[in-house]
Every structure is written in structure tokens, then in C-alpha cells.
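Translate sequence into C-alpha cells.
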Amino acid sequence: MRISRFPLLSGLLLCLGACAATDAAASDNCRLQTTPAQVDYGRLSRHAILGQPATAHGHSLGKRLITVNVVCAAPTRLTLLVRGTAAGESGFRFGPQGHLALTATQAVLDGNAISLGVVEQPGDAPSAIAARAPLLPGKGVTAVVDGQASAGSRLSVQIELEASVPANALSVTRETDWVSGPGIELVER
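Result follows.
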């Protein structure tokens, strides 16, 4: 088993800031790349944020997409995990009080659309198999074909990010950067 860690977002600066994803080389066998290199929410006022749709965690700042591409020299079972400061069981901390939800979707393995399965640990049998899978603290997602974890040489996954800010966190008197720094971990088996 080979584990490689990379910053998924080298600083999700939001609410008057910007967010960046990163490209990274993995092991000798696999290479991981994320695009775009930057996701920018721009400058947002309290009024603009309060006008956004409500979520269970506050006001959504909108959804953004990052594409994760993994290319391996030899077919490999791949698991993607996100490591970062948890904000409960449903997502990651975003700034001092916000929430960042991540969902993996539109997975393609070796040119074929596949399902994703949630795993407690790399190598575990996948559960909650579907076209969309939440990336949760302490859990990962793996490629699934015909109900089984599957190996491949090329994996592409869209990661949907949704940052939310509670209304009570918007009482600020000056410009504020909201930062979240989860990283993606690629586990090869």
C-alpha cells in the first residue's frame, strides 16, 4: 500500500479572498493533478452572503468544482481521502465558524463512467455505492465497478465544494479572510 498526501486547497480564502487547488506528483506509479489551479469567490459583502441560499450550516457561498485526475503507470486500486480539520461528521472547518462540504461525482475510470463507494479505510469493502459520494472526515471514496472496488490506470473525479458561513459570523467591522486547508490523500493498493 502506498500513501501520498497533497494539499487539495492551499488556502480556501473566501469571503473577501480566493481559494487555490494544487498540482502534485504522487508516487513512482501514480500522478495526481487537480484543476483549476484557483477557485475564486471574490469579494463578498455581508449583504451578498445573507442573500445566498440557506444550508444546514449557514448561507451557501455557492458551489465550485475541482477536477482530480490520477494517472498510474500500472492499474491500481485507488482511494481518495480528504484530511483536514473536521467540522462535525459532515464536512470540514471553513474559517473560524464556517463549514466546507465536499462531494465526489462524475467519476470515470479508464474511460468508463463508474460509481463511487465510501470506505472507512483504504482496502475496506465499499458501502453507500452511488454516482455521488460525500468526502467526509475520516472516510474515503474508491472506484467501484459492478459493486466491487476496481483497479485502473486513469481516474477522473469532479469534487464539488460548497462553503457555508453562519449569519452570526458575518458581524465584522473590516475585511476578513476565511481559510480552509484540507488536503487530498491518494492511497494506492
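Note: Residues 2-171+178-188 form one domain.
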